[in-house]
Amino acid sequence: MNIIVCVKRVPLTQEVDLEIDERKKDVRKDMLVYIINEWDNYAMEEAVLLKERFGGTVTAITVGSEDDEEVLRRCLAMGADKGLRVDPGDIELDGFVISRILAEAIKGLEYDLILTGVQAGDNNYAMVGIMLAEHLDLPHAAVVTGIEPDGNEATIKCELEGGMEEISRIKLPALLSIQTGINEPRYVSIMALRKAGKKELNVIKLEELKLPNDDLLPRTIIEEVFLPPDTAGAEVIEGEPDTVAEEILRIIREKGVGI
Fold first, then answer.
1. Which residues contact 78 (CB under 8 A, 6 or more apart)?
2. How do 34-36 and 58-63 pair as beta strands?
3. CA proximity to 99, closest of 109, 89, 88, 112
4. 62: helix, strand or coil
5. How far apart are CA 86 and CA 181, in angstroms?
6. Mean of the pLDDT values across residues 62-78?
7. 227: how many CB neighbours lie within 10 A of its CB?
8. Is the model's pLDDT at 123 over the cut of 90?
9. How much is the average pLDDT of 197-224?
10. The domain 3-216 belongs to what CATH superfamily?
11. 8: number of CA atoms within 13 Å, CB side?
């Protein structure tokens, strides 16, 4: 089973004080630490687990600069066989453009499955995987929590709202966007990373894909990025139930909420 996994290098934004850049189009990232996207990490682990059970190859692919090869090295250390980076140069990237670039880079490769993360931790758009499937005219499913291949089909589990789960079958080749929790990503040792650092990565320049200019125009326009306004902390109302209820009603009336 040949599997392609699309991965992304994202900034770690938890527990840091974010600042908006001068253009007010993004957060400042020059002082942030970068990691592999959490959802992509689970997708890579699932691909390696499937390879260990059924054989085949795993290819990790990313769209980005030389710095983004860091995540490809990590994927190789986890068990991927090949790494491919598409260098987009200095063009503006949104979900559509990234999916179009990936589709053009992937269409000549042999694969039974394409795995992506459900979303990327830097923007949470959750659009690249599904758009990539549409570009490649592939059956697809989102928020996948289980995969069981069987010949030219696979039984999959998908997470639904309200804690519900859907079990269905999908024809292969297909694209699946992987949800966190589908597995437990393996620990990557320093030794494995050193060995991965000696492996060759393939790099494709965007110009080599010969995409039409219209396909490289972003469809998503960010007007402004801003931090949420500072607000007062929560108010804790204490006392007997009757007293608490009266106080809540008073607050609601002052706020102008009809009851």
1. 44, 45, 48, 185, 186, 188, 192
2. unpaired
3. 88
4. strand
5. 29
6. 96
7. 10
8. no
9. 92
10. HUPs (3.40.50.620)
11. 25
Q: In this structure, is the dihedral angle defined by the CA atoms of residues 235, 240, 242 and 246, taken in order, positive or negative?
A: negative
Q: How far apart are CA 164 and CA 66, in angstroms?
A: 41
Helices (DSSP H) in the chain: which residue ranges? 38-54, 69-78, 95-106, 128-136, 190-197, 206-209, 241-254
Q: Rounded to an integer, what distance in angstroms lies between the CA atom of residue 66 and that of residue 85?
A: 8
- Looking at the DSSP assignment, which residues form a beta bridge with residue 58? 3
Name the average pLDDT for the chain.
93
pLDDT at 173 over 90: yes
CB 87 within 8 A of CB 203: yes
The model's confidence at residue 162, banded by pLDDT at 50, 70 and 90, is confident
* Beta bridge mates, 61: 6, 84
Residue 231 scores a pLDDT above 80: no
Cα dihedral: 158, 163, 164, 165 (round 10): 30
- Any idea where the domains of the chain sit in the sequence? 3-216
Measured distance CA(99)–CA(151) in Å, rounded: 28
Q: DSSP for 226-246?
A: -PPPP-PPPPPP-S-HHHHHH
When pLDDT is cut at 50, 70 and 90, the band that residue 94 belongs to is very high
